[in-house]
Design goal:
CATH topology of the largest domain: Rossmann fold
Number of strands: 9
Largest sheet: 5 strands, mixed
CATH architecture of the largest domain: 3-Layer(aba) Sandwich
Bound molecules: zinc ion
Number of helices: 12
Structural class: alpha/beta
Distance between the termini: 17 Å
Shape: globular
């Protein structure tokens, strides 16, 4: 599973008149993987908004991500960068807002057991490569947090102690966001250009660590900038004024390549 951004978003639920105004509820859209590129990003004549615009200000959740049409996935690149989508059809041109938090889930391979200790994977290396290859490098480059969620055996699932409550995590996220807003009047993910360097300054050890990781992993300039913003957010979650090597190290390990062998 992979996630972009670290901001909190609530889910849509039916509202009653006693509840908050509609604008206080963030949308959650989860289109099926049979959705066409037009349904996902918008299009048609006259141009209409797609799921990504209906998710503006909220969450777009894609389950079984590699099963979506390649063209639909590739069309996410522009809005993931700019928060807008431009649709051109013959003489018509329309622009729709599309600033959403992308949550994309996928299995490691077609059978789902690559790397699992519960069952052996039945896929050939070719099948794994073809499956993972459905997500292009430039699309993965725009996904900040790659989190592997291992399958649990039934008894582990039943006997594991409850995790931290959503309420507690929410409180921490709100505090971190307030720190960012107080420092730079914008969320970390919205920093651009020189503002990234100014707000995500690293000490010598942290900078060396990031340079080494970026060179070894062949990151683009975009990848480095995105990693810096994640490191800044991790530092804010920890209440740290400066971005230290531990924050950078954590950010680096969220931007890792997919596992290709068991
Ligand atoms: Zn498999």
């Amino acid at each position: 599973m992979a996630v972009t951004g670290l901001s909190a978003a609530s889910t849509t639920r039916p509202s009653t008149s006693a509840e908050a105004a509609p604008l206080a509820t963030r949308p959650l859209r989860s289109p099926h993987h049979t959705a066409s590129a037009v349904a996902l990003v918008g299009g048609g004549s006259p141009p209409r908004p797609g799921e990504i615009s209906l998710a503006h200000g909220g969450v777009l959740f894609l389950d079984e991500t590699p099963e979506f049409p390649r063209a639909a996935l590739e069309a996410l690149r522009e809005p993931l960068e700019s928060g807008r989508i431009t649709i051109s059809r013959a003489a018509q041109r329309a622009e729709f807002p599309a600033r959403f938090q992308l949550i994309a889930a996928m299995n490691p391979c077609p059978c789902g057991y690559l790397g699992s200790s519960l069952r052996p994977c039945r896929c050939s290396p070719d099948q794994v490569a073809r499956y993972q290859g459905k997500l292009s490098g430039p699309l993965l480059d725009r996904i900040d947090l790659h989190v592997e969620v291992g399958a649990l055996a039934a008894d582990e699932l039943v006997n594991s102690p409850p995790g931290e409550s959503t309420q507690a995590v929410r409180g921490r996220v709100i505090l971190a966001r307030e720190r960012a807003m107080a420092r730079q009047a914008s969320a970390n993910q919205a920093l651009e250009g020189q503002a990234i360097d100014a707000q995500c300054q690293l000490d010598a050890a942290a900078a060396k660590f990031l340079n080494t990781a970026a060179t070894r992993l062949g990151w683009s300039g975009r990848g480095i900038h995105r990693c810096l913003k994640v490191a800044r957010t991790i530092a804010d979650l920890a209440g740290a004024a400066t971005v230290q090597i531990t924050h950078v190290a954590e950010a680096v390990q969220y931007r890792r390549a997919l596992k290709t062998t068991g």
